[in-house]
Write a structure and sequence with these properties.
With about 220 residues, the chain is an alpha+beta fold. It has 2 domains: about 80 residues, no CATH class; about 120 residues, no CATH class. The protein is built from 5 helices and 5 strands, in the order H-H-H-E-H-E-E-E-E-H. It has a 5-stranded mixed sheet. Strand 3 and strand 4 form a beta hairpin. About 15% of the residues are buried.
Length: about 220
């Protein structure tokens, strides 16, 4: 039963993580009940059609599977975590600064007939990051002393349509820059190094970062 909910969280399944797990559990229970019903002299025949839960419980016990109620409580807890994460992101502080400025290149303009440039899609990178911090590091994203989130800005001359978020996590001394738009990298820095750069010249730090990231910034992994 646990295997049905133990799939790793990815950018592709973040938005449907709980629903997918719940669907997997429901399908598994249905398969178990069907297999149980096929057993000769199965006790469900004495339970009656009105006892659906008892029917399922008998089937799960017959095959030595864990209680569905516990699994459902687990999934309810994960759903609550995603609800908190969504609220935290919605309430993030906003900055007029452009985090990770792009190189100064004009935005291509669509010409001729047709629908013009296709709008870029989004990935739930920030939701994924906060979920990992909450579950793998025990860090509460709803605690402003544990996690600080600032939503940057974009301007009309940029190809990127979504801003970068600056996520500061003192507990692991990391500063993370993440953009929800496809094709934009996530950068993770040691907090001490960032503080040194910002204290020196914040404006220069962010302006140089966009142009020279590959040359003088070495992202690190969380942990």
């Amino acid at each position: 039963m646990s295997e049905a909910i133990d799939k790793p969280l990815t950018l592709e399944n973040t938005d449907t993580y709980v629903d997918d797990a719940l669907g997997a559990v429901i399908n598994l229970v249905e398969d178990v009940v069907a297999e149980y019903d096929a057993q000769p002299g199965a006790e469900w025949q004495q339970l009656g059609e009105a006892n659906g839960k008892e029917h399922e419980d008998a089937a799960l016990e017959y095959f030595g599977l864990e209680d569905v109620e516990g699994i459902l409580r687990y999934l309810e807890g994960k759903a609550s975590q995603f609800a908190v994460i969504g609220q935290v992101i919605a309430q993030a502080n906003k900055s007029s600064d452009v985090f990770v400025p792009s190189d100064s290149a004009p935005v291509p303009q669509a010409t001729g007939s047709g629908t013009g440039m296709e709008k870029k899609g989004k990935q739930p990178k920030l939701e994924n990051l906060l979920f990992v911090l909450m579950n793998d590091f025990g860090i509460d994203p709803d605690d402003p002393e544990a996690v600080s989130i600032v939503r940057g800005s974009v301007n009309t001359n940029m190809m990127r349509e979504e801003p970068y978020y600056q996520v500061t996590v003192p507990g692991i001394d990391k500063v993370i820059l993440v953009c929800q738009e496809y094709g934009n990298a996530t950068f993770v820095f040691n907090g001490e190094w960032v503080r040194e750069q910002v204290n020196s010249n914040q404006e220069e730090f962010y302006s140089q970062f966009g142009k020279c990231a590959k040359r003088w910034i070495q992202p690190t992994e969380i942990g």
